[in-house]
Task: structure prediction
Amino acid sequence: CMSNYDMVHYGHSNQLRQARAMGDYLIVGVHTDEEISKHKGPPVFTQEERYKMVQAIKWVDEIAPGAPYVTTLETLDKYSCDFCVHGDDITLTIDGKDTYEEVKTAGRYRECKRTQGVSTTDLVGRMLLMTKAHHSNIDEDLDYRKHTDNFGKGPKGHSPWTGVSQFLQTSQKIIQFASGKEPEPGDTIIYVAGAFDLFHVGHVDFLAKVHQLAEKPYIIAGLHFDQEVNRYKGKNYPIMNIHERTLSVLACRYVSEVVIGAPYAVTADLLDHFKVTLVCHGMTEVVPDKDGSDPYEEPKRRGIFQLVDSGSNLTTDLIVQRIIKNRLEFEARNQKKEAKELAVLEAMRRLEEEKH
Result:
């Protein structure tokens, strides 16, 4: 049983994966907009969007909507939870108290490790900086470092919990996130392709719709490399690099397999290799391939192409706009959060000194 999640990213999914492994049934508490605004400032996503998003993560058995910001023993008992799990970063209430004090004292608290290489603060930073340093195989680090120096730093010093760091992909991470399931006889193999950048509710709605198209769907998501995404999306897209996008999509319960760096044109080779029955695309514009051809030419020729309306108008662009619109509030919030974290570190340091 855990809480929070405004912008859900693979770091959160990884915490949920770890939490699920500690027990048998995972209930995730998700706060209301009002509750988040009170403690952290206004959230980017509405509670409905956040409920849907968390529910789509494959390690989540159930969500507890409207969970209180402070996890109490009463909440744990209400949902018959033996213990609650939180990341090893600190969460503080408005008055600077540890939100998990009560459950810690009762011995009903467990901790999982924060995922190295990503934080909401970092992702917001990438959106605001508009550089491409976070892409894989691009060396634009110098330009990036100049900007990061004033992002994710507090009034004094640097909080170790927030700020910009680098994501290192390992085969172990992929194995932990992958389902490992091969298609079974009778499965309908459905192929979808895209950037799936900043994996969000719009993606979830689309994949859920695609999932409903068959009795036994086996969905393969083809993810384009960063350079390819940048070619058709421009600016500094993708915000998340190929490694991060891979984990984000693998964490979704509707997806069975991911092609890491799929060709932009859906070729005969690809369709035959995966024995694809159906190729789906959402209502977003399909940018022509480099040579001006339609990337879906082959599936259309085979009569296996289908447009799917997710019913959602949320795109990565819109999310970035929402976040930038919220930018000032965010930056004020991030600076306050850093100041709060640094104050805690300072207090901890003093306690240590007094002990010795």
Summary: The first strand starts at residue 27 and ends at 30. Strands lie at 27-30, 62-65, 84-87, 109-112, 188-194, 217-223, 257-260, 278-281, 305-307. The chain has 15 helices and nine strands. The mean pLDDT is 87.
